[in-house]
Design brief:
Blueprint: E1 6-8, E2 21-27, E3 35-39, E4 42-43, E5 50-55, E6 59-64, E7 75-79, E8 82-85
Antiparallel strand pairs: 1-2, 2-6, 3-4, 3-7, 5-6, 7-8
Main location: cytoplasm
Domain Ig-like: 2-86
Subcellular location: Cytoplasm
Length: 86
């Protein structure tokens, strides 16, 4: 199985309270395993507030819905040993 690396990392975002924000990270291979999103070192799950998806097989996205002040912090995308933060 090839080593999956991050091709295009996360970008810092500034949004208003109540808005949605989407983070994107592109990886080198499709069907990457061991992918994890975190906010302030807390693992995020796909639910009504956090939409986690994959576009075109390589672009992993995280959308935080109706953000609040509690959502301020570092977003981390991790695939295997590689990480990107914003």
């Amino acid at each position: 199985e090839p080593d999956v690396t991050i091709v295009s990392g996360l970008k810092d975002m500034v949004v208003f309270e109540g808005d949605d924000v989407t983070f994107r990270c592109q990886v080198s291979h499709e069907n990457a395993r061991d992918v994890e999103w975190k906010l302030q070192d807390v693992a995020l799950q796909n639910n009504e507030m956090n939409e986690i998806s994959v576009e075109k097989g390589k672009i992993h996205t995280l959308t935080l819905r109706k953000v609040t002040e509690q959502d301020i912090g570092t977003i981390t995308f991790q695939v295997g040993p590689h990480t990107s933060t914003a």
